[in-house]
Design brief:
The protein has a single domain, classed as 3-Layer(aba) Sandwich (Rossmann fold). 53% of the residues lie in helices and 17% in strands. The two termini are 27 Å apart. The protein has 13 helices and eight strands. It has a six-stranded parallel β-sheet, with helices on both faces. The longest helix is centred in the middle third of the chain and has 15 residues. By secondary structure, the chain is an alpha/beta fold. Helix 4 runs parallel beside helix 13.
């Protein structure tokens, strides 16, 4: 694993194998840690929010999630880094839990969605110990009940789908109280796993155009994806100025 920088925001060149090894090491030490999934919009959010950027810098891992980030790194440095989306990492962690006898807790989405996601994941990974699940509609300012439920189950891995940057900030604020070795925000992954949101066809994924597919089926994302234009502009500017924005 190698730490890189993209527009002054950290991103790691890390493989699935390394994610697994780092996870197992953290679990063996019972060391509470945060993994962050970094996409183009996350980079733009971090540039506007110094506290969020600092959180990313201090994370145990910052994983490339998005064709925009992987393409930008290659364009600026010539380095090819692996893209690992949140929705792909959820099954990865469940497979790891199944193989290593780990306990995993999932948090986020609506009650029916998280219940269905748990059912689907349990069916796919019957030997994985899903020690609990809760929806994401709780008092985020005073989450004592939620934290107590999670602590009682003592998971090795906690996957949280509250959206960025909310999920990462919540994990950072409560990391010590949660006492979970591997925590990670996975955005809307549970909605996809539960079948509530259709994932982009393979051809879109291979071309790095999942964002375009999502915009086609959810037009309200147009304003949100407008930030991608700003990201592209900054990448080109960075290239032309030799890293001087």
């Amino acid at each position: 694993m190698k730490k890189l920088s993209l527009l002054n925001v950290r991103v790691d060149d890390v493989t699935l194998e390394e994610i697994g090894s780092i996870s197992l090491e953290l679990i063996s030490k019972r060391e509470p840690s945060i993994f962050i999934s970094l996409g183009s919009l996350t980079v733009m959010q971090a540039r506007k929010d110094p506290a969020y950027r600092a959180l990313i810098k201090e994370a145990a891992l910052v994983i490339c999630d998005g064709a925009g980030v992987s393409s930008a790194v290659k364009f600026l440095s010539g380095r090819k880094i692996e893209r690992l989306t949140g929705v792909d990492l959820v099954p990865f962690f469940f497979k790891l839990a199944e193989e290593k006898g780990l306990k995993i807790f999932i948090l986020g989405s609506k009650k029916d969605v998280i219940a269905e996601a748990a059912r689907v994941l349990k069916k796919s990974y019957p030997k994985a110990d899903i020690c609990g699940y809760l929806d994401g509609y709780f008092d985020i300012i005073n989450p004592v009940e939620v934290i107590n439920v999670i602590k009682k189950t003592s998971p090795d891995i906690l996957l949280v789908g509250l959206g960025q940057p909310r999920q990462e900030k919540w994990l950072k604020e409560n990391l010590k109280a949660l006492a979970v070795p591997v925590t990670m925000g996975v955005g809307g992954s549970f909605d996809v796993i539960a079948g509530k949101i259709k994932r982009a066809p393979v051809v879109f994924r291979k071309l790095g155009l999942e964002w375009l597919f999502r915009m086609m089926i959810e037009p309200w994302r147009l304003k949100r994806n407008a930030a991608l234009a700003g990201f592209i502009y900054l990448i080109i500017k960075n290239k032309l100025t030799g890293g001087k924005e």
